[in-house]
Design a protein that fits this description.
two-stranded antiparallel sheet, globular, mainly alpha
Amino acid sequence: MSLLIGSIIIGLILSLLALGMFISFRVFDFPDITAEGSFTFGAATGAALIVAGVNPLLASLIAFFAGMIAGAVTGIIHTRFKINPLLAGILVMTALYSVNLHVMGKSNVPLLNETTVFTWIENLSVSISGTDAVTSILGWVVATKNIWILLFCVLTISVFCLILWWFFNTNIGTAMRATGDNDQMIRSLGVNTKTMIIIGIALSNGFIALAGAILAQYQGFADVQMGIGMMVWGLASVIIGEAIINDSSLGSVIIGAVVGSVLFRLLVAIALRWGLNPNDLKFITALFVFLALILPGLINHKKFTYKRKSNA
């Protein structure tokens, strides 16, 4: 049960990454590989500030804005210099590797002895339930502090989902969605689509960097390599969520991204539990993404074939 709760917590944290990928990939159809650099950038910025004695919440907020800067640079390179979106993301991601090393001062920053957001949650758990308190869930014994951390993550992600839903229903948010759907139409209405893309990619990478900062606090370290494969993870979460929810409305897609992130993490945890070699984790991740990409098409094809046979 502890493994299950831990997997759900990480899935919820990485749902911020999924929400960021939803903005770039689904709203703007922008294959933004900057995510792999901005995720680590957020973790590095948050960890460095926490080690320097900055309040963990403030450090996380600064990490969010650091990610926005990285995303804005990608957007500017694409819109102002006419660089292909994928290549623009690769350029910024490559540059961020050196930036992250300068921010951290080394390749790995431990946070085990530092005060983080999760330290506060654990202290709250101890003050309410006592030290080493446990809770029984369906016959399984779980540390009470893990329940508190899970509740904190559920509440936090719910708030961010509501904020994102509200934002995309504002005038600027609607303009962003219209830019992704039909940029010529929205441009004819006087909207600067280049500005919309820059703001949107900045917001996307802000969420991704925030996910990195929070995950670093949960795991107890920030590492320069921790962003590798995160773009694939985020895309898999969005695609799996869409396949499960099967509803194209804004609120459903946002919820689907969160559900997809948690489910994807659970699938990885189950694979590891069954004896998967950790060296094969990236391969399994890519396989899950491949299956998530082709399954909706296969299901629709079977439905179409069945309907044709029924009408014949």
